[in-house]
Every structure is written in C-alpha cells, then in structure tokens.
Amino acid sequence: MKSLLTIEHLSKTFTLHNLNQQIDAAQDVSLHLDEGEFIGITGKSGSGKSTVLRCIYRTYLPQGGTILYQSAKYGEVDLALAPDRTIIDLRKHEIGYVSQFLNVMPRTTARELVNQALLEMGKNPLTASQETEGMLDHFELDPALRDSYPATFSGGEKLRLNIARAMVKRPRLLLLDEPTASLDQSSKLKVKALIEQLMREGTTMLGIFHDLEFMEGLCSRRYHMQDGRFHETAG
C-alpha cells in the first residue's frame, strides 16, 4: 500500500520565556500513514498529541524532522519546509483539520462558512449550495440557525459546524483533534457515519480521541503518546 504521509524524527519545543523554561512537546516522533488508513492516537492531556497534528497542518513549525506528504498537485512535499503559499493551497484542496474549537470571522454565518469551503475548492455556486445544505442536514443543524453567527451557538453546535466545514470538502488527508469532545451520543453517531463514508471514498485520517469506544471498528492502527513520544498499541 502506498504511503500518503511519512513523519520521521519530528520534534517540537516550546519556550516559556517568563519562566526561562523549555517544554519538549514532541520528541523523535516517527509515523507512516498509508492511503485509506485511519490511525488513532490516544494519550493524556499535555502528552503532545495535538502538537503533532498542528505540525502536520503547519499551525506549528517543528524544530526538527520531516513531514513528507504525497500531494496530488505538487508530488512529495515536506510540510515542515514548504512555502506558506503551498500550505494554504493544500489546506484549501487536500488537507482538512477538525479541532474542538471554531475560529471564524465574526460576521460569517454558519451557511456561509460551509459554502465558502466548497467555493474555494472551485465548486460552482449551485453545487456548493446543494452540498452545503446536505451537510448541514446531516448534522441536524437547525435551519433557523444556518443564517446566524456561530458566536451565538452552543459548544456542541459549534463543533458540529466545524466538522461539517472540514468534511464537506472530502479531503485526501483529514486530521481530527478530539472531534467528538462535546457531542451527545446522537451527534457522535453522525460523525462516525460520515467518517466511515469518507473512508469508503478514500480519505486518509489521523485522529486524536479520548473516547475509546468511538474508535472501535474505525482505526486500522493505534498509537499511545506519552512524554512526547509515540508507542504503537494493539487493537
């Protein structure tokens, strides 16, 4: 099977200037992710899980190591070194990211958020509008809320919107940072159904979870992160 993402000896350190202290968030992390695979990552809060995902998405710049991504457009790209313009283009067309938090422009409605994600991929307005409504229907976002600003939403509504915005693009690589953190059981099942659909369509995924029950039947491999390092686990 062809590898889509290969991480070798990734390291990320944060400096706390006020305490004159350094924190090693990720140390010598190596991982390969094959096309169509779903790898799950577990570990305590502060163990470095989100740091790895943010280095892949290039929210953080790592201090060392390589993050080799096989892009459909650019061929092999080291995400640790690629120009910002390349990273922005990959985020628009190939790499999705779902976090627990929704950061959006204050005057953008829920419907506009999802629709914009499709328009920036080059979808025509009619198709984008139809796919937007289908995704918002799937996550049962109240039609009365769709033209409202997400700042007024509950935590669960914001998270459902965040997931909808990332998944509607059907990215080649999807990074999931606690995608079910504040969801009720019904919403979790909808996320799981969509993940399974994306897997059938060929999306490759790397996800962080505390909900081990949710991971059952989804992940082809699991890693446990402790003290900034990966340890492969059974099951």
Automatic annotation (TrEMBL):
Q: Which SMART domains match?
A: AAA
- The keyword 4Fe-4S belongs to this UniProt entry's keyword annotation: no
Coiled coil ranges (UniProt) are: none
One cellular component GO annotation, for this chain's record?
plasma membrane
Any Pfam family hit = ABC_tran
Domain of life, per UniProt, equals: Bacteria
List the protein's name: ABC transporter
The protein's matches in InterPro entries, at most eight in alphabetical order, are given as: AAA+_ATPase, ABC_transporter-like_ATP-bd, ABC_transpr_LolD-like, P-loop_NTPase
Source lineage: Bacteria, Bacillati, Bacillota, Bacilli, Bacillales
Residue ranges annotated for the ABC transporter domain, each copy included: 5-234
Gene Ontology terms, MF aspect: ATP binding; ATP hydrolysis activity; transmembrane transporter activity
Q: Which UniProt keywords apply?
A: ATP-binding, Nucleotide-binding
